[in-house]
Please model this.
Amino acid sequence: MATHGASAGDTFADDLAFLKKHTPIVVLRDGGAAVAVAPAYQGRVMTSTFDHQSGPSFGWINRPVIERGLLSDEQKKGTLEEHIYIFGGEERFWLGPEGGQYALFFKPGSKFEFSDWGTPPAIDTEAYELVEQTDASARFKHATELINYSGAEFQVGIERTVKLLDKQEAAELLDVELGEGLRMVGYETDNRITNTGSHAWKPETGLLSIWILGMYNPSPETTVVIPFQQGSDKKLGPRVNDTYFGKVPPEYLQVENDKLFFRGDGTRRGKIGISPQRSKGIAGSYDAAGGVLNIVTYNVQDAPHGFVNSMWELQDQPYSGDVINSYNDGSPEPGKPPLGPFYELETSSPAAALNPGETMRHVQRTYHLQGSEDQLDTLAQQLLGVRLDAIKDAF
Model:
């Protein structure tokens, strides 16, 4: 089954026209900057641009899956939709952990294999209710029940607000100057989960986390850059976790003392993670062909119960998970097509040990910046601690 979606050449206007044919879309705008949000796809940001008339579309959109729509149980048999609807979208709301004894993507008694993996409907096929909207923001709500691999039940209230950031706000949040001639779209999502049940969520039966994933168009000239805290592995743990889907080879991952480079070319399936001890609260990527610097940040907060571990195995340390991840798509099994292809930047909240009525909040901000190489070089150094030339020459 071919799932090749939009090419990186599509404009925002093209993608928006396509999306509107198939699902309701909320468009947030500020000047030329625009964000397209889909309530039926969990309030996900499908794509964004700094020029809504003729600018590029930054989100990877899976047109064939969106065109087909939701399938019956009979139609789904033997297809990828049995496991997940990959609609695409450059910033979506998910919940962790994926694997392990407290997994949300594996039913009790199942095996940690792709054939048994399935995405909960609340983060796959269920629509979220649009409860409030302005020109530059939209707020969504949803309620769901979940059961993890160990059989623990969760009643969850979900709230998600998508808000455009203007250039001045972005400059203040990033603590940089965004000069004349620099084109930008920036937005934040404020994501909250509330324990709406009558029982406390406890580490010994499993905790949830907010997990935000961005799917972007890959290219041969796209490289992910993640800076991290320097220090010995003994004190801070490994610099990178590169064993999610088998070890990532050096032609796809270069790890230095305080930063790593990871290909975002959509040609080989691999995933990496940065631990909370190592994280600097920021990740990015550079598309040398498009001249676009992409930056993702999140609200760094205390994590008394650690971070959920999404490894597909029974875990010795279920709360030693990563806070930042990046995924490069490719074939999941020999002879199978890629899921996209696309690449992802992801961040996670701490594990949420919530009493009834308590809420966990995770805020992620995404910025796409296009300008001269000099402008972007300065920003890359300030934000990621690396020159553009070093990113371009990493592989």
Q: What stands out?
A: Residues 373-384 form the longest helix (12 residues). Helices lie at 12-22, 63-68, 73-76, 167-174, 233-236, 373-384, 388-392. The radius of gyration is 20 Å.
